[in-house]
Amino acid sequence: MIQERLINGRLHFSLIDPDKQSAQEAGKMAYLCEKYGTDAIMVGGSTVDGKMVYDTIKEIKKNCSLPTIIFPNSADALVENADYVLFMEFMNSLKYEHTRGEQLKGGILVKKLGIKPIATGYMVISTSKIPTTVEQKTVLDRIGEDDIEKAVRYCAYAECIGMDCVYLDAGSNAEKPVPDKMIREIRKIVDLPIIVGGGIKTPEEAKRKIEAGANAIVTGSLVEEEIEKIRSIIEAIKSASPS
Ligand code: 1GP
Q: Which atom of ligand 1 has the smallest separation from the CA of 170?
């Protein structure tokens, strides 16, 4: 179970956006991600629909033996050939559809389709001057890079309501990743596994996030743009010594 592996930490997830390439190309990317040592393939993006997700996962499964995890933008992204879904409450969104609306549609689909849900307290940390795609698509209770206490509060809430993990996302191609200090302060209070993504481009950054207390690092843009770079990022994650 991914949830158990998350608890032990030092994981890397490769995020593939079905909107950015053909399903066949996504399959080839997943093959390389597995070869480079990634732990799971996340599939999602802000504009995808179910057919694109289904076709992409089908090709990924032909080329790679790793678990697939849907990272949904809505209930429409839920498809039966996925292994897991990050079943998310977008905790710092002020839009009902992002906190509860799509989840009410999605819960029943997850049950019917037999996808394993990973209950995820998802939050966007705003680190960029120009809003990232996810920031443009919702209305946020903004958590800036210095709003550490607020971030800790959200994560403690996620633990108290029984989530499996929290996901701190600076947004795809963020100017700066989630700050190490924020991860460290959350880790002092919160026992849940912490997934961190958005703007992580170097092995050093990835390693620092793990050493600050993150259990898994997500990279998406690098998989699309310079896939061979994830090899050194994965090596750095696996060699990190969490505090
Ligand atoms: C975005 O956290 C993911 O939701 C990945 O971000 O594309 O910047 O790696 P990047």
A: 2
Residue 41's domain comprises: 2-239
4-40 in b/e form (b: 16+ CB < 10 A) is ebbeebbbbbbbbbbebeebeebbbbbbbbbebebbb
**pLDDT tens per residue, range 87-96:** 999 999 999 9
Residue 177: CATH number of its domain: 3.20.20.390
Dihedral, CA atoms, 36, 41, 47, 48, nearest 10 degrees? 120
Model pTM score:
0.97
- How many structural domains compose the chain? 1
Cβ–Cβ under 8 Å, residues 198 and 132: yes
Main-chain phi, psi angles of 159, to 5 degrees:
-65, -45
Q: Is 205 in the pocket of ligand 1 (CB under 6 A)?
A: no
- The Å distance, Cα 222 to ligand 1 centre, comes to 9
